[in-house]
Design a protein that fits this description.
alpha/beta; Rossmann fold; eight-stranded mixed sheet; 9 helices; 14 strands; 34% helix; 28% strand
C-alpha cells in the first residue's frame, strides 16, 4: 500500500464529489477507480472527477488488486453485502450512514475485519469537525455549567432524500435510518453513553416521513431528535447548560456555534471549511496507515448499538 492509500468508490451517488475533494485534502490517499452498474455513468463520473479507472460493475472494482480501500455510498440495503464482499477481497472499508440495517450484520463485519486485519468504519463527519473540538472543550471544562438537554433538528422537503429508494422499505429508506447516525454519535460524543431511547413516527406509504426520538445518557442528559420531510424548521443543535446555551446551525455539517448567557451572545465560534469530509477522512486514513481495524471515535461497536436502538424503535412502531 505504501504511504498513499488507493481508494475505489462503489457508486456514482451525489455524495461522491464531496468525498473525492475531501480525500484529496488529506494528502495521504487518492481515488484511483470508481464503479457503477452503468458503464456510461461510470465513464462520465470518472472523467468529471479526474479518476483514472472506471468499472461497469462493483465486483470488477473489488477484484482490482491495485485498490487498497473502498468507500461505499450505495443504497442502505446494499451496505452490508458489499462491505462483506470488500473485506473478503482484502479491502479496507469506509461505509456511508447507516452502517447497516441490523446489529448482527455490524457485528459480523467487525469480526471479519478483525480476522483479516482490515479497517472498517461508518463515515460520520460530525465528531471531527473543528467547531466541535472547541464545543467539547467548553462542555468538559463546564465553562457555562453542566450540560442538561440537547435538541437535534433536521428537516428537508426536497432533494434525493425524499424520493426514489429513500421511500422504499426494502431498500432501507425512511428518515430514521437517514438521520440516526448523526444523532446517536453526537449525543454520545457530547454527553456520554445512551442508556434509554424511545420515539414515535408518522408514516407515508411504506416508510416513516417524520420521527421524534427521546434519549437519556449515562450522565442524566436528555437528548431529542426531530426529523421531518413534511415541513421545514430551524435545523441545528441547541445544547442547554446550567448557565447558558450553545446554538449550532446545521449541526451535521457545522462550521460555527453561538454561545448565549442570559439570552446575550457571549461567544461566536467560527471554523469555515470548504469540504467537511476532510477531517474524518484524515483520521480514517491515519488509522489505516497505522494498521488499526477500527476508529476509536466511530467504532463499529457503537454503530451496532445505534442500529439496535433503531431496530427496537421500528418494532415498537410496527405494533
Amino acid at each position: 500500500m505504501g504511504n498513499i492509500i488507493r481508494f475505489g468508490i462503489l457508486s456514482c451517488a451525489s455524495i461522491v464529489p464531496r468525498f473525492v475533494k475531501g480525500l484529496e485534502l488529506t494528502e495521504t490517499a487518492e481515488v484511483t477507480a470508481i464503479a457503477s452498474r452503468s458503464f456510461e455513468r461510470a465513464r462520465r463520473t470518472a472523467a468529471e472527477l479526474a479518476i483514472g479507472n472506471f468499472y461497469a460493475g462493483y465486483e470488477e472494482l473489488l477484484a482490482d488488486a491495485e485498490i487498497d480501500a473502498v468507500y461505499i455510498p450505495l443504497i442502505n440495503s446494499l451496505h452490508y453485502p458489499y462491505a462483506k464482499k470488500a473485506l473478503e477481497a482484502g479491502k479496507h472499508v469506509i461505509m456511508e450512514k447507516p452502517f447497516v440495517l441490523h446489529r448482527e450484520e455490524a457485528e459480523e463485519l467487525a469480526a471479519l475485519a478483525e480476522k483479516k486485519n482490515l479497517f472498517i468504519t461508518e463515515a460520520v463527519k460530525t465528531p471531527f469537525l473543528p467547531v466541535y473540538r472547541e464545543v467539547k472543550k467548553i462542555l468538559d471544562e463546564e465553562t457555562y455549567g453542566k450540560i442538561q438537554f440537547m435538541e437535534f433538528r433536521q428537516s428537508y422537503t426536497s432533494g434525493p432524500y425524499i424520493s426514489g429508494w429513500n421511500k422504499e422499505k426494502k431498500a432501507g429508506g425512511g428518515v430514521l435510518y437517514g438521520n440516526e447516525a448523526y444523532f446517536f454519535h453526537m449525543a454520545e460524543f457530547l454527553a456520554g453513553r445512551i442508556v434509554s431511547c424511545t420515539g414515535s413516527a408518522t408514516f407515508g406509504e411504506e416508510v416513516e416521513d417524520q420521527c421524534v426520538l427521546s434519549a437519556v445518557t449515562e450522565n442524566n442528559v436528555m437528548a431529542t431528535l426531530f426529523v421531518s420531510t413534511q415541513v421545514l424548521f430551524n435545523n441545528g443543535l441547541i445544547i442547554h447548560l446550567d448557565k447558558g446555551r450553545i446554538e449550532i446551525p446545521d449541526y451535521w455539517k457545522a462550521s460555527e456555534a453561538y454561545i448565549y448567557q442570559n439570552n446575550e451572545l457571549k461567544e461566536h465560534l467560527s471554523f469555515p471549511h470548504q469540504y467537511e469530509f476532510q477531517y474524518e477522512l484524515a483520521h480514517y486514513c491515519k488509522c489505516i496507515l497505522e494498521g488499526k481495524t477500527g476508529s476509536p471515535v466511530t467504532p463499529v461497536e457503537n454503530s451496532a448499538r445505534y442500529i439496535h436502538w433503531c431496530e427496537k424503535l421500528y418494532r415498537s412502531w410496527e405494533k
